[in-house]
Design a protein that fits this description.
Layout lengths: L8 H36 L8 H8 L5 H14 L5 H10 L2 H19 L5 H14 L5 H10 L3 H15 L5 H14 L5 H11 L6 H54 L6 H22 L8 H23 L8 H23 L14 E5 L2 E4 H22 L2 H11 L1 H6 L4 H23 L14 H11 L4 H22 L1 H18 L10 H4 L1
Antiparallel strand pairs: 1-2
Helix pairs in contact: 2-3, 3-5, 4-5, 5-6, 6-8, 7-8, 8-9, 9-11, 10-11, 11-15, 11-18, 11-19, 11-20, 12-13, 12-18, 13-18, 15-16, 19-20, 20-21
Length: 531
């Protein structure tokens, strides 16, 4: 035994420290392997199975085993939500092709499920349609829940249609039968291919009795849907006919005034419409360059007076430099204005190119789904309303104002009007400018339904002349009825004969009509009829 009695007190503490260190050294050496084993054990279990199924599924989604990935995807679809999308996007970015293929349907489903609660009706409707196209049965409860709280009927219709479309793949025969009947009641045109597949499958020799039982319901649903689709097509055709009639009416109003007042065949009237369209395009570009994007949609109402004035000024110059010297010479006015139209088209092609486009303002994008299968674009509705406004404006101008009295007096008897002190020369000039401005308004409106190109006016000039001649020269009521007739017949014939032959049949019909009634629908009365 070691004695510490002879050690000075100053050295007692260091000596004790040394002895204690030597005593515990073997214990420390003996503990090192145990410590190493513990560290290795922790390292070996760095990725233990997680108690959270979502976290475990995110880990398994990176597995090389396809079965493990698929099971993980099923778990995420069943229990996940939109908050997982950023993490799934990260996995998709760093993963291989197999991982990306496993992640994509999960991300799409979670996004669409979240969009079912979006504030935008279009987003909710698009999400419901995407869920149906994905074919995931897991989406049925979410679609059913979303449809119950949906207030917009057309969005609710799409949600119900998507739900029943997915139920067609159910393993329960009663659910499938109910889905077939519901799709028929919804008049779902999108489900017709799937219903026809059911009918074809039931006709196979190996078809089960349950599948055959669906045949009668599926055939009845298809007949109901196709019958409604035929009527919906008729209603849409009528709407397109009215829309085309409105375009022809706006185009023909100015032409009817010029032809009826001055006896001028203005073949450049279509190019005046083109000027209005390009004025709208220039106004749009000015807003893009000089104004904030927040006020971009205001370019369209601003472009209205710009288009009117641009076409009116050009018409005034055309009348003063060309038309003035050709009054009473129809063939010469036709050839001269035709030459002007060629010059204008080529000038537009050189300066603007062959194709430019005008972006529709937000209020005129999209359309109204008034009923199943009947979709009315806002831009077409706008043109119909515009044509009504133009007709009312011209009516009050011609029949309820002093200027209108002068115009009508010059139209009926130019010499007598001059004797009464009416400046017929100024009336001609102002009226031609006003009619040209109406063509500019037509071009302003047409930018909403098509591209702006140098041949824009050529697409409507022939039909506009047919409207003017068929309705009766200088007759506002005749122009309205003729535009409705020609535009409506054009759209009714097109589905059966095509666009080209449709125009040929319309032209033949107009020629035959004029053979029977040369003065048009509304013939001139009084002294002007005998002139």
């Amino acid at each position: 035994m070691i004695s510490l009695a002879g050690i000075p007190k100053k050295l007692l503490a260091p000596v004790l420290f040394v002895f204690l260190s030597l005593g515990f050294l073997p214990l420390g050496i003996g503990l090192q392997p145990a410590l190493a084993v513990d560290v290795l054990g922790q390292t070996a279990s760095a990725n233990p199975p997680s108690s959270n199924p979502i976290e475990q599924a995110l880990i398994d989604l990176k597995s090389e085993d396809a079965a493990v990935r698929n099971k993980a995807a099923e778990v995420l679809i069943e229990k996940g939500d939109a908050s997982l999308i950023p993490r799934l996007d990260e996995i998709r970015e760093v993963g291989g092709r197999a991982v990306r293929q496993a992640v994509k349907p999960v991300v799409d489903l979670l996004k669409n499920r979240a969009n079912l609660m979006s504030e935008s009706p279009d987003s909710r409707r698009s999400a419901a349609a995407d869920l149906a196209s994905a074919g995931r049965m897991e989406a049925i409860p979410y679609l059913k829940e979303a449809a119950q709280r949906e207030q917009v009927w057309w969005v609710r219709y799409t949600m119900e249609e998507s739900q029943h479309f997915l139920e067609l793949n159910s393993g329960d025969p009663a659910v499938r039968l109910g889905a077939v009947k519901q799709l028929g009641e919804l008049r779902s045109l999108n489900s017709v291919p799937a219903l026809k597949e059911l009918v074809e499958a039931a006709r196979q020799a190996e078809a089960t009795d349950e599948l055959k039982a669906l045949t009668t319901a599926a055939e009845a649903a298809i007949d109901h849907i196709e019958s409604w689709s035929w009527w919906a097509g008729i209603m849409e055709t009528i709407f397109r006919g009215i829309s085309l009639s409105s375009i022809l009416l706006i185009m023909s109003l100015g032409l009817a005034i010029v032809f009826g007042l001055m006896g001028v065949i203005n073949m450049a009237h279509g190019e005046l419409m083109m000027i209005g369209a390009y004025a709208t395009f220039i106004t749009q570009q000015a807003f893009i360059t000089w104004f904030s994007p927040d006020v971009f949609d205001w370019y369209f109402p601003v472009a209205l007076p710009v288009a009117f004035l641009a076409a009116a000024v050009f018409g005034w110059v055309l009348e003063a430099t060309v038309i003035r010297f050709l009054y009473g010479r129809l063939l010469e006015t036709l050839l001269a204005t035709w030459g002007v139209s060629l010059i204008l088209m080529q000038a537009a092609r050189v300066y603007f190119g062959d194709l430019t486009a005008v972006i529709a303002p937000g209020a005129l994008r999209g359309g109204a789904q008034v009923m199943v299968g009947v979709y009315l674009p806002y831009n077409r509705i706008f043109i119909i309303v515009l044509s009504i406004i133009c007709v009312l404006g011209i009516y009050f101008l011609l029949f309820r104002s002093n200027l209108g009295i002068r115009v009508r007096s010059v139209t009926q008897n130019r010499n007598m009007s001059a004797c009464l002190g009416i400046p017929t020369r100024k009336v001609d000039s102002y009226t031609f400018a006003f009619a040209s401005g109406l063509a500019g308004i037509a071009g302003w409106a047409l930018t909403m339904v098509g591209n702006v190109d140098p041949g824009l006016g050529q697409n409507y000039i022939v039909d506009s002349f047919m409207v003017v001649v068929t309705g009766g020269v200088g007759k506002l009521a005749g122009t309205i009825w003729a535009s409705l007739g020609i535009g409506g017949l054009n759209k009714l014939i097109e589905p059966f004969s095509g666009a080209v032959y449709g125009k040929v049949f319309i032209l033949i019909g107009v020629i035959l009509f004029l053979q029977w009634r040369p003065q048009g629908l509304f013939a001139a009365k009084g002294r002007s009829a005998d002139a």
